[in-house]
């Protein structure tokens, strides 16, 4: 029987907020369980962010302030594309919890969209990391109206 477990005890928790998937060792253990695999908190956040964005009815992730900071961060060379904007995760020994701030499209059922996002995030994180997702909390920060203009990253100046 394969014994895979997530361990975050003093010696087994890697630096930088990572969970360690510890397998069995020795000649009798299957090759895929020999050694350990670390999963950083940022990886779980990226998986959750991508899974949430796949749901129809979610316009964007992040509340007003998070979107403003994300837009500024996106202008700095070398920073990520904002996949984790609006996503916060807590990763423990064997479990993870996810908090999402979302903007939904006008006219959709918020309850249905939240349920679908919750299901999609849980499925993706559990399948890709092996962690049990104990909760996905969703805060609807705004509703995107069809006639609202998108925030532009490159605003034109007054002088040409």
Structure characterization notes:
With 160 residues, the chain is an alpha+beta fold. The protein is built from three helices and seven strands. It has helices at 41-53, 64-74, 110-129, and strands at 5-7, 18-22, 36-40, 58-61, 87-91, 95-105, 132-144. Strands 4, 5, 6 and 7 form a four-stranded mixed beta sheet that branches. A three-stranded antiparallel beta sheet has the order 1-2-3. Strand 5 (87-91) and strand 6 form a beta hairpin. Helix 1 (41-53) crosses helix 3. The protein is elongated. The chain starts with a strand and ends in a 16-residue tail after the last strand. 24% of the residues are buried.
Short description:
The protein is built from three helices and seven strands.
Mean pLDDT: 79
Helix/strand order, N-terminal first: EEEHEHEEHE
Overall geometry: elongated
Could you tell me the number of beta strands?
7
Number of helices: 3
Structural class: alpha+beta
Helix content class: 25-40%
| End-to-end separation | 70 Å
Largest sheet: 4 strands, mixed
Q: What descriptive keywords fit this protein?
A:
single chain; 160 residues; alpha+beta; four-stranded mixed sheet; three-stranded antiparallel sheet; 28% helix; elongated
Helices and strands in order:
Blueprint: E1 5-7, E2 18-22, E3 36-40, H1 41-53, E4 58-61, H2 64-74, E5 87-91, E6 95-105, H3 110-129, E7 132-144
Parallel strand pairs: 6-7
Antiparallel strand pairs: 1-2, 2-3, 4-6, 5-6
Helix pairs in contact: 1-3
């Amino acid at each position: 029987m394969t014994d895979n477990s997530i361990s975050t005890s003093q010696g087994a928790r890697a630096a930088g907020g990572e969970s360690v998937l510890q397998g069995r060792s020795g000649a009798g253990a299957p090759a895929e369980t020999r050694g350990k695999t670390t999963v950083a908190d940022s990886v779980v956040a990226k998986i959750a962010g991508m899974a949430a964005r796949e749901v129809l009815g979610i316009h964007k992730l992040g509340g007003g302030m998070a979107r403003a900071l994300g837009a500024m961060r996106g202008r700095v060379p070398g920073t990520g594309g904002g996949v984790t904007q609006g996503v916060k995760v807590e990763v423990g020994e064997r479990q993870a919890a996810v908090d999402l701030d979302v903007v939904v499209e006008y006219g959709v059922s918020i309850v249905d969209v939240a349920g679908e996002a919750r299901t999609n995030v849980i499925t993706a994180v559990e399948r890709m990391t092996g962690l049990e997702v104990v909760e996905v909390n969703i805060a609807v920060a705004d509703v995107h109206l069809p006639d609202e203009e998108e925030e532009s990253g490159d605003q034109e100046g007054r002088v040409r």
